[in-house]
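Review form for a predicted model. The reviewer records the input and the model, then writes brief findings.
Reviewer: anonymous (R2)
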Amino acid sequence: MAEKPNQQVYPLAPSHGHPRSDAESGTLNSKELKRKKRIKCAIYIVAFIVLQTMVITAFALTVMKVKTPKARLGTTSNVTVNTVSNTSFDITLTTQVRIKNTNFGPYKYESTDVMFMYDSVSVGQGIIPKSKAGFRSTKKVGVTVNLNSKALPSSSSSNLESDLKAQVLKLNGKAKFTGKVELLFIMKKKKAIEMNCTMQIDLSTKMLKDLICE
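Model under review:
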């Protein structure tokens, strides 16, 4: 019986690496999760800062921005013609002065006068008492003024005679307000208003017309 040739057995080469244990894998996963959480946290913080900056900017540009209120005569008026001749007039005018405040806080103003002028000369004036125009609102102040030609110089007589014959009296209404806008009860900003209106009084219809305010 033939003998089997000798078979030489070679040992397996040793492995240079070693499999990761469950503990090592868990540690790596934990580090990765923490890194992702830190990135998310940083993103949220940056987004919050950007949002807060936008809110503060919008607040400063709208709420905290102080605008100058506006004053003008109202279109609703009552005209009473006492006496009118070719060279003189005596009229009672009842109208409104409107102070429009668009700020996010009241506008407090001092007492002032509203003057009505013909040919740059005062022919009557009324008093606007100290008060305030509230938060984003319009204050309406009733004013009754006696208008007469007593103070007019002789140089105005020709223009006056022409206007009275045409039954139209051309006037200017002016007033100057001084006061303060208050924001959030802590910030106060001085604001002055100048009202300058042109108008015509139709003596035949006893109506105010062509009112224009700057």
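Findings: The chain is about 25% helix and 45% strand.
Further findings: The radius of gyration is 42 Å.
Recommendation: see findings above.
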